[in-house]
Specification:
Helix content is about 30%, strand content about 20%. It is α/β, with parallel strands linked by helices and about 120 residues long. It has one domain: Hypothetical Protein Ychn, Chain: A, CATH 3.40.1260. The chain has a five-stranded parallel sheet. α1 links the parallel β1 and β2.
Length: about 120
């Protein structure tokens, strides 16, 4: 099976227009039967904390939230992961992560995934 890893590292939750494309592309790729993982690290890690993505919109005045994009990706089969360092960086606990988050991963996981598996990587 072909694999896609989407790394959200520079995507800033304060800029809503940046947030739809990565999750939408994850949803589409998963619907096309690709194995998809979305890894949120650095500032993008905030998106996996409960209450954050629910309050963000890609376009001002739109009814669809960033959380709706996340749920669609998850429902199509994409797995979402938070960087373990984000918990300390943003004073979060594992219990505060959204239910769509499949768990925590570290830098070693990401490097090994990319170097040892046949996958494509998109970085945002």
């Amino acid at each position: 099976m072909k694999k896609l890893v989407i790394v959200m590292v520079n995507t800033d939750p304060r800029n809503g227009e940046e947030l739809g494309a990565p999750f939408y592309q994850a949803a589409v790729a998963a619907a096309m039967d690709y194995e998809v993982e979305v890894i949120c690290t650095a500032t993008a890690g905030r998106l996996l904390k409960r209450g954050v993505a629910e309050s963000l919109h890609v376009k001002a005045g739109a009814k669809t939230t960033v959380y709706d994009f996340i749920k669609e990706a998850h429902e199509n089969g994409a797995r979402l992961y938070a960087c373990s360092n984000n918990l300390e960086l943003f004073d979060m606990t594992k219990e505060e992560l959204i239910p769509e988050c499949a768990g925590l991963v570290g830098a070693g996981y990401l490097v090994q995934k990319i170097m040892e598996e046949d996958c494509r990587v998109l970085t945002y």
